[in-house]
Amino acid sequence: MVAFGITPNHFLALLRQFFLLGVFYQVVAADVYNFSQVEQPEISYSSFNNRLTVLGDFDSVSFYDYVGQSNISSSETNGSNYLYVINSQDQFQPLYEVEGDIEFFYKIEDDSILMTGDFSIENLSSPLLFNTTTNNLTSIKDWSSNVTGTIKTVFYDDYYKLIYFGGDLIYNDEIYGVAIYDWTDEKFVNSPFKGFNENATINTIIKVEDYENTEYGSIIFGGFFYSLGDEDLLIHTFWESESELNETGSYINKTNTTVTADPENLVSLKFATISTVNTDSSSSDASTGIICPGNEDTWLLADDNLGSWTATLPFEVTPSKLRIYNSQSDGTGVQSFRVITSPSDGIMNLTYIDPNTEKFVYCDAYCPLLNSTYLEDLVESNGISFYAVNNTRNEGTLGFGKNYQEYEFVNELSIDKFTIQIMEYYGSQAGLSGVELYQYGVVTYANDSLNQPSCSDSETSASADLTDSSVWSGYEDVNGAHLTTTVDISNGVPENFGVIFYPNITYSGNYSIDLYTPGCDYDNSCSKRGIVNVTLYDSSSESLASQLIYQTNEEEKYDTIYTGHLTVDDGAIPYVDMFLSDLTTVTGDEVVFVADRIQFNIISIDESYYETVSNNSNSTSNSTIEEYLRISINGLFEYSLANFSDFDYDNGQDVAENGTTNTYVGNSTINLIGSTILSENATVNGLAILNSSIYVAGEFESLYGDNFIGIDLNGNYGYYNDTSNSSSVEDEFVIDGGLDGSITDIFVYANDSLILVGDFDATVNSTTVNELNTTTSTNDSIRGIALFNGEWYSFGNGTDTEDDIYSFTNIIFNNNNEYFIFNGDNSSLLIWDNSNDYWIESSDFTLNISQAITLNGYTFASGQLAFMDLYNANNGAYVVGDPSLQSLPFELTSESSIYSSGIYLNSSMSAIGGNFVAEGYIYNLIFIDYGDNNYTFGIADVQWDDEVEILSMLSYEDSLLIGMQNGVTIDDTKYEGLMIFNLSTNSTSSSQPESLTINEGNVTVNSFVIDSSNNTLIVGGGFNQAGDLTCNALCIYDMTLSEWISPSFSSSISGTIYYMQAYSSSKLLISGNLTIGDDTGYFATYDLSKDEISFNDDLNKNLNDSVKYFILVDEDDITGRIIGIGENFIAYSNGGNGWTRIDDDLIMNATTFSDIQLITLETDDDNNDETIFNKNQTLLVSGFLSHEVYGNFSSGFYNSSSWIPFLFTESSSGSSTKINQVLLNEESTISESTYSLSKGGKVMLIRNVVGVAFACALGTISLIGVAYALYAVIGKNKNYNSKTLESRVAEKEMLDTVPPEQLIDSLDHAKHFTKTTAN
């Protein structure tokens, strides 16, 4: 993650330890992800005018809010992927390091995620189950030993707890395309249909739920396949016989006998309500007339119009087939149609005999109907008048005649309305000449009107007699109309009061007889319902059976009153009477008696109704016929759970054998769409259910468009038909002609839209495309990525990629912003900011995730995640009092840049120095005028050395004193170490100090101290000479005379000074790496009154390295509290007893310090014993800090006993980052100390603030405060023991050239900020 410090793996190990130790405590199992918040001290932002500036070497910066944040917010992951958990505050933690790429997440229950892809976690390979409650990973048991291939999709059936894996898989060496895993029992189970054909690939799986029976429904597979593993399931065999057709065309079985009995009966449409759409005005009456085809009526639609014909029945029936007579009028006729029934409101699956091939064919949305002339010629050319065979159930017949075709209802379902919707027509008009509906068995209604046949001239029909018709009335409930009466039984039950049913049965044979009784809930008569006596009589009026039937049922019911043989003899038929029983016991004097219908179901017909056909009859030649119907599948397969409810899952055995009928795989509309609508060898890559529709996407052509079509579901039954055990399809529909290229996948978004990805550019029909990208785009192409919600939306510019996009996910992140993330081949990534409608660059922040899912309030994501509060920081940022982070008001243009120093010139202007190039060709020093809309400017009359770096700055009167590493050229003259800039003229001063030089290495000026009484500048750093003078580490510049002054001890001192601060009226405390005479040390005192320097033994005690910067907490007392930092340590001294380190909790081999600063608190910290600093203070430490618990951060507080991380930084390059300096508003950086000199005057020594060379840090608020103390020491009494000081003559000669504005005589204008650099 970083060049040093806590690595991600180290942090993950610590994280797990913290869980165990209770650092991340677990309240309950569901709260395993406890984000330990970091409570920041209450800083008094008002004490520095609500602005804190951080400068350093970083690209982005963020507040530290919770434990471990910095270790997981950085993008420096060295290419590693992680599994993250994210809470609602955008806080996230890595749970596991992931080797490889997780491609897809799938929700398994409310607390588990199935992860697939090419990856492993802790030596566990994909696919893996992750439990979000326990934080545990579980392998799919025995996956590697049972399954090979690549997973492309997963579906979880939460009712059966089964996980369906789809892909180019092979399970158990013989099941292709799919593997099914029992999540509860942790074992694989057999696919009941044995998967798919060899080399099949399953790309997508969805489920159409059965909301009435939740254990059922249909699972729909999409992919590239053409058959099932158990191919016999696709073959529906109906019979195997030797047969022929006689001269009338009747079906003959293998014994050469003709069936003259028909088990199906016409449903009367006489009292049906007929309605039409777009009927021709000339044939409006014919819409009713066609229910009796023999009357030669023809119903026609208006010219060049489509329309429909609907019959609403007064009762419910279960139809077996529909016979349709096409228009006999020349130039008219129906070419294709569909049948829609109610209450299912779905398109019916039909089976018919193709007259051209005499083979069974399925149809649904477009069922063909031959032209009447063509059909008649075809039938007559075969020498027959009609063709009929056993239907697919072997319960009735199916065929065609000269003027009609029959269509069997594949699914048994009750209907009360049916519509014939015309889809295509011949000539100029669509029309029909007849419609007949059939059902199995014989139904007789108590309401005799309903028994009347559709054709009034029909010779036979069922009938019913009421013993007293005047007292009966009709009542209609959800199941249709029935009769009801209220009988007065105060004087006893009347004898033989009721109804007699006379069924229209014409064949002797075996029957079962069902009596239907309406429910009492519908008319609220339950308390008054009684008992009826039902008796069956044979054709000779002998009683065959008698039962007492209670009518107190709440819902409709039926009772089987007889099963057995019935004889029809010379027109005499059996009948049933239903009379009110005298056993009826009700409270009161009235009983409610209801009567509905009775149904005779044909079990078998007596053999006497089979006629032997002579061998010399006029018939077709004998042949062996093995009729079967193969259900074709092509890229789509509907697996009905109800159909397979009795299947032997354990053995996966074959059940479809020759000569038997299987109903496991139906000819559902979904299966038909694949085989009849999609092009051959279609590939379905995506299926989605949205807004009552199934969307099919992939690579195919179709009548409904290419690569993308829709299927409307009937929502009345929850999109599923319990009767047919299949998806309730209402219609297929075109979506703008489809797309002009293949679709890789589709994803449901927000339950109202689809996201499509693939190799496409536009819709086939060039549909209008709306543009989502409103900020930068002029591209309305849906190239490769599109959103569809009934209209098309383009994401505009940014979707161009040569890589195939294979996945989509969305995530709510970054202050409730929503992002769409598209992953493609070759690790390509596209990120769309859906909250602001534009594409973002992946370098803005790291959101390189492949999948995200939200469960129980947490979001789980895989990939690389890094989020910072401020990006594009350009090495600096403002912390304002919200607190919040703001960018500096300029951009850097150089690749390698660093800020090393900074200063507030006044409350509205600051200067920042370092080594950089800013926009506008501003080099190394930039001024920011906050009062002038953040106007920025630089120094125009300077030529900078390539390796120059501004290390320290001090503002004094109208001059800005600039300490440097290396130097600049002004008017062709080279100046090293120190430069003076005139703030009133915004130009370099006309008089510049001569260069500081060093024997080896680079010159550095690290520290300044102003003696305003003498207008001299005390300079500390790394140098040997000032002009021609010997000045080792410390030199004095007389700003009045523009000359360097060498202290008397200059020849006896060597090394580097890092920092200087006044602590009395005439003394400075100096830290550095120094040699004085023959001794070496790190702390020295400089007595200005004596011009002497010496080591401070108390402060050098138990000190093993240089102190780069220190704070005199008690200001004028070097025996009091002092805080100091070295390159790899931080310590305090109190009472002159040496140093005590406070970095025990830090990982010191990974920590470097750059800056310290005392910050004022809003309220006192009562836990602070003031050993180190005051109760109203806290210590802000900056650099690069690595903590045992918190990980890495760049700035943090030390509250006298523990560390609190404040800010952390990162670099997009992956290099280590740090904060070098914290800069506060100038009003909080000035403090005064007055001292009584021997001559009674008051002087002030301006205390400078320096940074440290090793970290390029700048001083902080408390350091600047001592500036006035040094001023007080020197004051207006210039007392340097001048006889020991050497002056350059040349500089005396320059005295008259010093401009007046450089003469500083006001203490109140003394301001500074400096930086130190180590050699």
Automatic annotation (TrEMBL):
Residues 444-603 form the Rax2-like third domain. The chain crosses the membrane at residues 1249-1274. GO terms for cellular component: cellular bud neck; cellular bud scar; plasma membrane of growing cell tip. Residues 1-30 form the signal peptide. The keyword Signal applies. GO terms for biological process: cellular bud site selection. Residues 264-432 form the Rax2-like second domain. It comes from the Eukaryota. Keywords: Membrane, Signal, Transmembrane, Transmembrane helix. InterPro entries: Rax2-like_C, Rax2-like_second, Rax2-like_third. Residues 978-1231 form the Rax2-like C-terminal domain. Pfam families: Rax2 (PF12768), Rax2_2 (PF20842), Rax2_3 (PF20843). This is Bud site selection protein RAX2. It comes from Pachysolen tannophilus NRRL Y-2460.
